[in-house]
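Have a close read of this protein, sequence plus structure tokens, and explain what the tokens say about the fold. Thanks in advance:
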Amino acid sequence: MRTATLWILLSLAMTASAQPGALDPTYGDNGAVILQPGAYLDLNNQVIAAPDTTSYAVGIATPDSIPKLVVTRLLADGSLDSTFGEGGYAFIGAGSNTQGSTLVRTPDGSLIAAGVTLVGLQRDLFLCKLSAEGELDPTFGDAGTLILAVGPSFDAPRKMLLMPDGRFVIAGESKDANNVYNGMLLRFNPDGSWDTSFSNDGKLFLTQFAQADRFVDAAFTPDGGVVAVGEAVVGAPTVVLLAKATADGEWDTGFGQGGWDTLMIDQFFLDYAGGVTVVDDRIIICGTTWGLDGADAFMARCEADGSLDLTFGNNGVLRIDHDEEDEFYDITIAQDGAIMACGISGPMDLSDAYDLLFFRSDADGQPDAGFGTDGVSVIQLTDTTDKVFSMALQPDGGILACGYTVGEDFDLLVVRLIGGSCDVQSSVSPGSLVLCPGGTGLLSASTGDAYQWFRNGELIPGANGPTLEVGADADAGAWFSVQVSDGPCSALSDSVLVDGYVFLLPYIINEGDQPNGTGDDGEQIYCDGDNPQLVIGSPYDTNIQWFNFGSPISGANDTVLAPTSSGSYSVEGAPAVCPDFVLNAGVSVTMDFHPIVQPVVVESGILLCPDNEGVSAQWFYNGQPFFGGIGQCCIPIFAGEYTVFVDYGDSCSVLSQPFVLVGIREHDGTRFQAAPLPTSDRVTITWTTGKPIPNWRLLDITGRQVLSGPQTNSPLELDLGKLEVGRYWFLPSGIRAVPMEVVR
């Protein structure tokens, strides 16, 4: 296990208190995180801060002795986030040597990293996209990675910028066919394909310098362009290089000398830029200028056209001369407009024992006396070399910087400095908000002078007020937090859940008397006097209104409706917790109430028949089912009480009143003589009128015909020997039946 001695010595007689510019003792090991994921070469090139107080760094690591691009995710306290990649690291390799240079985080939490990889003897551009969990995104490039030969032999990305629509820009350098380094700007679509709306093919090169030029950093300008800085060789000296491209990938002819310009700080030996940022339309650069007495770090500010802004610092330039060698590699702007830069400071004695250099000035380039000592903070972490190349500001004003420290080998380094004496409290109220469907609510932030709201950890563009309106349809189930700023300080609140009520559609329950049947059109059939009930299902118990054929029923505002007449019934209502969320059941219950029908028994010749007839009839003799009949009529054979139930197709009929037959009348029937009776086999029937016997039938007790015959002269002899024992009726057409009995 490699080790490094952690001094944490703040030079210039700084105290160990919470003074801006000091290491934050709550982060990592007294303000520093030193990681050794590889065998011998680990270093960070860029750090970015996420809104949720986590952070990411990209660089190089050698986990299996082969250099790979590494992305590291750290939690707010500087510990590795074990849920990311492999215990906090995502290692991506392509070939024998892959290195990471720059990184961006998309609004959904994905990460795009850029670097280089060796393909034979050629260094090509390497891109990859990771999910928020640190896995390669298969929708990007070739299963998550891309290798691109931009130039014939050497390509190197230095800074990546993310556009609001997901496209991204890379600034760097590329060797041309003449072996000359040229600054390059590249633009890609979100999936890694070339954005051909930029310079026709996605590539723009600065070729005005015969010896060499390169870009090391870039920033967007308010007009949608890109300003890039670096260095260019002009004769012997190296000078600071500035260039500006338009949004469509052309060099901006209104900038400098036709899209580019140079800047000499010392007018003597060697100048180069380290970082750039844009405030409004002015360009602020940091870098290094070399002279006979060593190197000074500098900041300079230029107008939108590339000319020096003489109101900044000392005629446009601010120099930092703390030690023999001071260099700035990155620059950023704090929330209060303060300018911050980071780099190294140390002696020129070939010991290579550099310390960390941080500087803060006001917006006009005057050192901030409240930061370090006169704006300068130099931190010695170890007794060897420590370097930081990139910095980022966290939501609470903390200052992150990354690079490397030299122990037995090179180790990843991330430090956090206190950005200011901050006591900002950030909270969201109410702490729990439950919205009704379709409803809205208001989240309020604690008091501050600036606000930024986040949804599920992602910044909400334009949400910069003390309150935020949320809606159930779009926001139920989402977590919201707010970053509250007060002067230069800010704090991110805990997240609160916006929840929402979810209700099933209202429905109607049939209770009480159930329908007697269903009509041809699906209507429920009831009889007059039935007591059905319609109930709206819970929790719809508020603001209820029942309807019949779409019209409100006056006073029908309870959960139960008891219809008594035909209609098509529907209902609407709302849950008590959301009384304005009124929904209609969306279906109607059609009811058809039929009148009660009681048939009347009437005589029809020798028959008893119902008036009116229905689908079918069931006769009863003295209360017992009786099956002897003709169609819906019956043949009364014995004296007694006859009743009938007629089915009219909707079950709304009732049993008739009794028809009492005192005795069987003898007319017509008495003119027939049948003998012998009872009989076991044969019987002779004689009609004493002398007339022919009409068409006849012999019926059993159920009314089933067992014998029949045509009109014939009297007497008629019948053979009943094959019939079952029992009662039978001889029924001449139009004449009362003659009973007979078969016995054995």
Summary: The CA atoms of residues 20 and 371 lie 5 Å apart.
